[in-house]
Amino acid sequence: MAGDELLRQLSQVLHRCVRRDDTLARLGGDEFGVLFENCPLENAMTTADNIRQVVQEFRFIWEETTFNIGVSIGLTPISTEGETISDVLRRADTACYAAKEAGRNRIHVYHIDDAELEERHGEMRLVSSINSALDEGRMELWQQSISHVDHLNTVQDKGNSHFELLLRMRERDGTLVSPDNFLPSAERYDLATRIDRWVLDAVFNWFRKYPEQLEEMGFCSINLSGQSLGNEKFLQEIVDQFRLSNLPAEKFCFEITETAAILNLNNASQFIKTLKKLGCSFALDDFGSGLSSFAYLKSLPVDFVKIDGFFVKDVVTDPVDLAMVKAINDMAHAMGKQTIAEFVEDKEILEKLIALGVDYVQGFGIAQPMPLINEQTR
């Protein structure tokens, strides 16, 4: 009711800002559009800025509470040469997103050579692809082994008893898209928790369908986004999943990146503590990428530290990277945590990590990612 009343009042405010011959419309949700007819760009900018100021000064009162309102405005000129309505709306929408990205409560004018806008537009197309893939069942789970290193300088061959679950997106034409190419856009446009929810549902369904895989497995690692760490509803959904499925929580390890954990330190700590009570373990991914890694490590009750592959890949040739990996490994062990080295690409890197005493190794030199075992891939 409050939202509907806000929209009604805001419509009246906006209507007083535009000219008699202009067209004001609500496009959906909290988005409005204005069509300025026979209006030079300079005049349109003046009116748009007037709208911005009036909305910023507007106060919405509901049940004795006053709310401040902000607005982001995207402005685009309309030519008469081969343009469709969709082209114009797309440009205006893209410019609006750029205004939001720049800090909100501002105006962004679309320019044909605006590289930033084209990048945003590309991301918006990717967001549409992500939503379609989720709706149409074109997301896939893959796995990559995590091998334990024993104290005899050999790698124990335990098959897939420990593995990390990796996400892939299948385009309609069959092209496989890696997460590096779509997860940043998902994070930017608040789709990360929806993806995390899909992953959790798929994992739990898979283990219910193949209980023998659960028996053979030591643990599997599942990546979670930074957005999910602060989502109490999502946390409760995970707790409910474990309680309803009766799956052993001790066989599940959740991976969160160091950057996400630091940005959401209190939420991350509470999130971790809640699931650890059920028996789950946690790994701090990409460790070493932050500026205050060691200081924050003491504040997070994680079980594993995944050493950032940025340092691991050159550990044989770069003495600084070698020192960094050694420092992370030693510090983690001093805190009672086990270490996992990523990006182990060859035997030389593996031997160096074994000498340092790293607990687990993962990378193309250990095992290539492969689709999660199902009836077709057995």
Kindly describe this structure:
The chain is an alpha/beta fold and 378 residues long. Helix 3 (85-101) packs across helix 4 (115-135). It is elongated. It has two domains: 2-112, Reverse transcriptase/Diguanylate cyclase domain (Alpha-Beta Plaits), CATH 3.30.70.270; 138-371, EAL domain (TIM Barrel, Alpha-Beta Barrel). The strands form four sheets. Strands 7, 8, 9, 10, 11, 12, 13, 14, 15, 16 and 17 form an eleven-stranded mixed sheet that branches. Strands 1-2 form a two-stranded antiparallel ribbon. A two-stranded antiparallel ribbon has the order 3-4. Helix content is 45%, strand content 20%. Residues 151-160 have low confidence and may be disordered.
Please tell me the overall pLDDT.
Answer: 87
Assembly state? single chain
SS-based structural class?
A: alpha/beta
- In terms of DSSP E residues, the strand content is 15-25%
CATH class of the largest domain: Alpha Beta
- N-C termini distance: 54 Å
The whole-angstrom Rg is 26 Å
Topology, please?
Layout: H1 2-15, E1 23-28, E2 31-35, H2 41-57, E3 59-62, E4 65-68, E5 73-75, H3 85-101, E6 107-109, H4 115-135, E7 139-145, E8 147-148, E9 162-170, E10 176-177, H5 183-188, H6 192-209, H7 211-216, E11 219-223, H8 226-229, H9 232-245, E12 252-257, H10 258-263, H11 265-276, E13 281-287, H12 293-297, E14 304-307, H13 309-312, H14 319-334, E15 338-341, H15 347-356, E16 360-361, E17 370-371
Parallel strand pairs: 5-6, 9-11, 11-12, 12-13, 13-14, 14-15, 15-16
Antiparallel strand pairs: 1-2, 3-4, 7-9, 7-17, 8-16, 9-10
Helix pairs in contact: 3-4, 6-9
